[in-house]
Structure formats: C-alpha cells, structure tokens
Design goal:
Blueprint (H helix, E strand, L loop, with lengths): L29 H10 L6 H7 L5 H15 L3 E4 L2 E4 L6 E9 L5 E5 L11 E4 L13 E9 L8 E11 L4 E7 L5 E5 L7 E3 L11 E9 L7 E10 H4 L3 H7 L8 H9 L9 E2 L6 E4 L8 E7 L9 E8 L10 H9 L3 E2 L4 E2 L4 H7 L7 E11 L5 E12 L2 E4 H8 L11 H22 L10 E4 L5 E5 L5 H23 L6 E3 L5 H12 L13 H10 L6 H10 L5 E3 L23 H14 L8 H5 L1 H31 L6 E10 L2 E6 L4 E6 L7 E5 L4 E4 L4 E4 L3 E10 L4 E6 L4 E2 L4 H16 L6 E2 L1
Parallel strand pairs: 5-7, 10-12, 13-20, 14-21
Antiparallel strand pairs: 1-2, 3-4, 3-6, 4-5, 6-7, 8-9, 8-11, 9-10, 11-12, 15-16, 16-19, 17-18, 19-20, 22-23, 24-25, 26-27, 26-32, 27-28, 29-30, 29-35, 30-31, 31-34, 32-33
Length: about 775
C-alpha cells in the first residue's frame, strides 16, 4: 500500500544531508522508491534508500523484498552495488549533441545505448557567464545528467564537463576506380551503402585511398552521391587495414608538435629521491617482439625463520610519473588517448617513442627509474606484507617467454644459462607458492585461447596461430596481479584517492538468464546475492570434456559484467579480490599512471605525485579511460575482422568448419576457429522449417521438427559473400539441424515462450 512521506513535497529532490521524516508504521510506495533512485543516482544503494526513508528493522527486510521484486520485473538493475532504472542514463555520461529545440536549447543523445527502444533525449545546460565549456551541434561531450520531472520534453538535463573533438556526418570509405572509369566509395561500415563520386568531387583521391566523404544527395534511382572531404592515406602504400579502425573510432594517432617537443626535451632521471637497486638482478620477460619493457621481476627465498618456506617477490615498474607530469602537454595527450591500442600491423602508443621505447623502457644493462614493490609470501601463498620503493634499477637480462621457459625446461641458452640457478629457478619457485594462493582464492577460470594474426611483409594475413600458454606467461601474470593488489591496499590504507580496477558480479538478470539456460542442460546454479567465482568454476568443471563444454564456457563468459575504472571500490569479481588497481603498465595505460602518482604522493617518494586537482577529477577521468579502453577493444576487433575477411575474399564457395558464436532472431553468427573471425547466416537461408528463437536456450529451433541450432554448435558452412573493408562475411549452413539438449518438456516450454513473444507487437518468427 502506498503511503505518503511526511516532511517533503512529493517531487522534491533530496540533498545529501536530508532524509524523509516518516512515522514508524509508514513505508514508501514503489513510485516513491523509484523517484528517489532516479533523483539520487550516487546514493542509490540499499542502505542509502533505507536511510533516506528512515527504515529500520523489519522495514529494511520489506525494502529488500521490494527492490528484489523490482529487479525481477525488469524495472531496476544493479550495478556496482547501486540500483538504477533499466534504460536510465548513468550520472556521468558521454553524449552526442544533435540539434536544438524550439527555444534554441541544445539537445543530445547518449553516445552508447542504455537500453531497448529509442535513446533518451538530454537538454544541455550551458554555464552562465560563459565560464564553462561552450558546446555546439556535432560535439561529443562528457556531462553530468539529471532526470527531469516533466511529463513531456527531454527526460534529462545535462551539465557539460568536457568537450571532445567535433563530430561530423562524414562517411569513411575506400576510394575505388571501376573499369568503366567511374568512382565509387566502398564503405567501411557494414550498414552503409556504396556511394558514387562525381569527377569534380574527387579531391585528388586515388584508387585504394582511405577517404572521408560527405553524402551530398540521394538519387531516386541508383546509388546516393558524395564528395571527398579528405584523403586520409593509402591502404596500398601503407599496408595498414588498421588505419580504417583508427579513423572510424576517432583514435588519436599523430602526436602534436608540442607533445613531441616536450618529450624530446625530457632529461633522464637521476638518483635523487631514489634507492640504488642497480645491483639487484631484475629481469624482463616479455613477448619476443615487444618494443617496450615496463616490468621486471626478481624473487628469493625468505630467510626469516618466522616464515619457513616463504619467498620475497619483487616487481619493478617503469617510473613514468618521473617524466609525465600533471598538466603538461604530454599528460594531456596521454589522458586523451587513455591507453595504447594494439593492432596486428602497428601500435598506436599512449606516449611518444622517446618516453615509451627509450626513457621508460627497462632496457637490459641500462639505468632506468622505477617504482618497485617487495612482497613477502608465506609457504601457502598468503601475502604477509609489502613495501614500495622508488629506485634506480638496471635490468640484468631481456628475456622472451619461450626463452625463459626453455631454460626452466632444461634447454638454457647463452643468456639464460648464467642466470638459471640465481634468477630463473627462484622465480619459478616463487610462482609455485603464489599459485597456491591463487588456487585457494579461486578466481574465475575461463580457458579462452587467444589467437594471433601473423602478417606477411605486404601487410596481408599469412596465418593465424594460437600461441602456447606457458608457465612463463602465468608467472608474470600472477606477479603483476599481486603487485596491483599491493598498490590498491597501500593507497587505501593511506586514504589516498585512486582509480580502482573494478569488476562487478553478474547482475541478477544475467544470473537468472544463465540459470534458466543451465536448466536446459540439467545443470543447476544456486540462487543468492553473494555469488562467487567458485560457483561458476564448479559448473565449468562439471562440463569439462562434455559435448557442450564450449557452449557452457561461452554462456558463462557472456553472463559476466564488464570491468572498468572507478574511484569507488566494489572489488574485482573475476579475480575474487576485495581491492585491485592497475599499477603495472603505466607506459600503455593512463590508469596505472594515476596509481603511480598516488603512491608517490601517499608515501612521500618525491616529485610527480597526485595533485589535489587530479583527485577532484578522478571520477571524470575514470569515465574517460573506461571509454577509451572500450574504444580500443572495438577498434582492435574490427581490424581483425577486416584482415580475415580480406584474406578469405578469394575463397568464395569454399567450405569451412565453424562454431556458432551468436544466436539472434535474425540468424546465426558463426566463427571460424581456424581464423577467429565471425560471419553471419541469415535465418531466411535456413530451409525446411519455421525457425523460432529461444533466448533462454540460445537457439533457433524448428516449430515442426523441434530440431535446430544452438550457441557453440560445431557446424560446416560455405562462404557466400565477403565485404573486406567492412569486415563482413555471409555464409550458408551445410549442417542439418539437430535435436536440441533438454527434455520434450523444455522444448514445449521454449516453444510457448517464443509464441508468447511473437504475440506481442514487434515480435515475429521466420518460416523457411
């Protein structure tokens, strides 16, 4: 029953220091709870809501049940222990300004989808007096958003915090000269049609150039027309398909002159404010083709008789904060980039080569400044203590993963032989101890092999390989994880603000979806708000070696939340850690540079520490670098798709072994395991039945036969069509549908759900 709250008007927003004054027997209505959550996105946890409405005792249990019901109904979602309306904008969001209303007020949409349906409209609030940023139509901005109470008009207002580079309506494509002499634009976006360019609008473009074009007009007949705005480079001469992704995702890739000048003027660091560790035989272990080396390791037995069998593990990380100071041109450009971006044919670095590949690269036998952490572990893998140091070090050896592993496996070479007993074996002994701690912690153990594209000298694909995962890789990974934990613990203990690396537990909605899927395979997942990685590991262990092992791994992966950066700690679910921060790669991640500066400030380690201005901006910076990380991942994925599509363009009509990597109402996505690339099979090409989409079982099944296709099924397909520049491939299914896992009862329940879905507006099945 809805009860009116006394002490405030119905729509009056709360402040941080006020809460509702209610009688002991009063409880807020659902609408009042939802209104509070909308008006207080930063204080929308269960405890915050209980405090706001003065709920105690049994009323708190009642509130917990109400919130759970709202989540089960799909009204609320839970992220980072805070509740939010499904489809609601985050309090800090990236927006694209698209126009003005009748009063001239700027209007924007969120840059990323926040839920089903049309994106919400945000009216942009400009600071009075001209003190704040002055955005305009076409700008992408970072803004704080506030829900409105108006029944009509924009759902939110937004206060601009930062303006990104101006966006345009330009289309990216490859300029092609056809045999008849006409000009076409081959688009790089899959949904963009080809464009015709008239000669007077060629603007100097040559065949194979990557160009920006502006659509000019659409013809009643034939393809639309466009004019070339700019030639961005030649794919033929630069041999760089990655250039498409760089421009398509607006990745800064050319350092401004003032940034280069600043980097060239930097002087090497000295011993001032540093301990001299140059005699400690730290070594770097990296991929064989690595150009920069930002971490070095060393280990030794702990001689303290109070810690029998223990070890001391040392991790030294390049001291980027010694050279990149807050507010400089170098710092502004590094924040703008957020992180380095890695393509098969090039790297777009966060920092200029003078910094990343020279002064901050821990080169063999050269003095280099570093931040180091010395960690003591007990014999069972528990970390007992740690200390941070600002040092000058000298790498004793530059090693590659296979090289170090070969030495441990009994095949040392001229470089690893002399340090095998003194450096490498103690490292492996320490890893064995750290692994005991990891095994006891039980992080999420998904075994997902990573493919690597090997290119020919001309930049085209030579082959795709799955590098062997060695103990050398795992050793470095675990050393880095422990160093990251130590950094977070130290900063938290010193009450120093930082950007945590956070990973939330799967949302309740995703848990329930996974639970329903597992039931179709006769597997169960316990209910409960306090999920642990070990529960997922138990499921994965039960299906190990089974036909549906790959399917279950894939669905468990998709149930996980996305990791991000935040000044508010919620822990790292996947690693099963209470606190975690990125510390070990400041050359390629701005997040790590922030943590370095925090340690320098908190521990009094000299100049270059975190400033008060930086602390005040941490929330905004966390949003920015989380966004640049997602941008980099999308660009890297798109580049791989384009390279593989170009590689397979000459193999039309060939047959391939494939695995179903996605199931939608529109059809099946299939991945070629040999190449790691995806293509699509439209549902319209699946013959012989009326195919219904079952979201729970991740399948398409035939209404008449009950047979169909499910996520992770291994199938044979034929390549029908390739659009190399868009990275798109279309296949034909050659494998017959199969009986799906589960009982007939599960089949009929799925069929009923599908029919119910199709009875709603906008739902439909396919008959083929």
């Amino acid at each position: 029953m809805a009860r009116r709250i006394t002490g405030r008007s119905h729509g009056d927003p709360r402040t941080a220091d006020t809460r509702a004054k209610v009688k002991d027997d009063y409880r807020p209505s659902r609408d009042e709870i939802l209104r509070y959550i909308a008006e207080n996105p930063d204080r929308a946890g269960k405890r915050d809501i209980a405090k706001a409405f003065a709920l105690r005792g049994d009323d708190r249990i009642w509130l917990k049940d109400i919130l759970r019901d709202l989540q089960d109904e799909g009204v609320l979602t839970k992220e980072r222990k805070r509740l939010a309306r499904i489809g609601a904008l985050p309090h800090v969001a990236i927006l694209d300004i698209f126009g003005r209303d009748g009063d001239g007020i700027l209007l924007a949409h969120p840059a990323e989808a926040v839920g089903p349906g049309e994106p919400p409209v945000v009216s942009i609030r400009v600071s009075r007096g001209g003190n704040g940023p002055a955005p305009g139509i076409g700008h992408r901005v970072l803004a704080k958003t506030f829900p409105t109470d108006e029944p009509t008009g924009p759902a939110y207002t937004g206060r601009v915090m930062k303006i990104f580079e101006k966006r345009t309506d330009a289309v990216l494509g490859v300029f092609r000269i056809l045999k008849d002499g006409t000009f076409r634009i081959e688009p790089v976006e899959r949904r963009q049609p080809e464009l015709i360019v008239d000669k007077e609008f060629q603007n100097g473009a040559k065949n194979g150039d990557l160009v920006e074009v502006e659509p000019t007009r659409a013809s009643r007949y034939g393809l639309p027309r466009a004019k070339v705005l700019a030639v961005l480079g030649s794919l033929t001469s630069e041999k760089a398909v990655s250039m498409i992704a760089i421009h398509a995702h607006d990745i800064p890739h050319i350092f401004p002159a003032d940034v280069i000048a600043e980097s060239e003027a930097v002087k090497p660091a000295t011993l001032a404010h540093r301990e001299d560790w140059r005699d400690l035989p730290l070594v770097t272990i990296d991929p064989a083709d690595a150009k920069d080396h930002d971490d070095a390791v060393f280990a030794t037995p702990d001689l303290d008789e109070k810690n029998p069998g223990g070890v001391i593990a040392t991790v030294a990380i390049a001291d980027v904060a010694a050279y990149v100071r807050y507010g400089t041109a170098l710092d502004r450009e590094a924040l703008k980039r957020g992180n380095s971006v890695y393509f098969p044919d090039r790297v777009v670095p966060m920092l200029p080569e003078r910094i990343s590949n020279d002064l901050c690269s821990l080169r063999e036998d050269q003095d280099r400044p570093a931040l180091a952490v010395r960690m003591t572990f007990s014999a069972d893998g528990r970390k007992l203590r740690h200390t941070f140091h600002r040092v000058m070090m000298k790498s004793a050896a530059k090693l590659a993963y296979p090289q170090a592993q070969a030495a441990i496996d009994g095949v040392p070479d001229d470089k690893t032989g002399p340090i095998l007993d003194t450096v490498l074996k103690p490292l492996w002994d320490a890893y064995a101890i750290l692994k005991r701690g990891r095994d006891g912690r039980q992080p999420l153990e998904l075994d997902l092999p990573e493919r690597k594209i090997m290119l020919k000298p001309d930049g085209t694909v030579d082959r795709v390989i799955v590098p062997e995962r060695l103990d050398a890789h795992k050793l470095i990974e675990e050393f880095m994880i422990q160093a990251n934990v130590a950094a977070a613990e130290t900063l938290e203990a010193k009450k120093q603000a930082l950007a945590y690396r956070v990973h939330d537990a799967p949302s309740l909605a995703k848990q329930e979806s996974l639970r329903e899927f597992l039931q179709t395979l006769g597997l169960s997942l316990a209910r409960g708000a306090q999920m642990r990685p070990a529960q997922f590991n138990g499921i994965l262990e039960r299906v190990r070696g089974a036909d549906h092992e790959g399917l279950v791994n894939e669905v468990v992966l998709r149930s996980q939340s996305q990791a991000e950066y935040s000044p508010k700690n919620i822990g790292h679910f996947g690693l099963n850690l209470k606190r975690y921060a990125h510390f070990t790669s400041p050359i390629r991640r701005y997040a790590d540079l922030i943590v370095h500066r925090g340690l320098i400030a908190a521990l009094g380690l000299g100049p270059g520490g975190l400033t008060q201005d930086e602390e005040a901006r941490l929330e905004d910076v966390a949003v920015l670098i989380s966004g640049t990380e997602r941008r980099a991942m999308a660009a890297e994925r798109d580049t791989v798709d384009r390279l593989i599509a170009a590689y397979l363009a000459e193999r039309i009509d060939d047959r391939f072994d494939a695995r179903i990597s996605g199931v939608t109402k529109a059809g099946l996505f299939v991945q070629l395991p040999q190449f790691g690339a995806d293509g699509f099979i439209p549902v319209s090409s699946l013959n012989g039945d009326y195919y219904i989409y079952d979201e729970t079982a991740r399948s398409l099944f035939g209404e008449r036969t009950g047979k169909g296709y499910q996520l992770a099924d291994r199938v044979e397909v034929r390549l029908i069509e390739v659009a190399p520049m868009a990275g798109a491939m279309r296949f034909e299914m050659l494998t017959d549908p199969k009986p799906l896992p589960g009982s007939k009862r599960s089949f009929h329940k799925a069929k009923g759900r599908a029919r119910a879905s199709q009875s709603r507006p906008g739902s439909r099945g396919r008959r083929r």
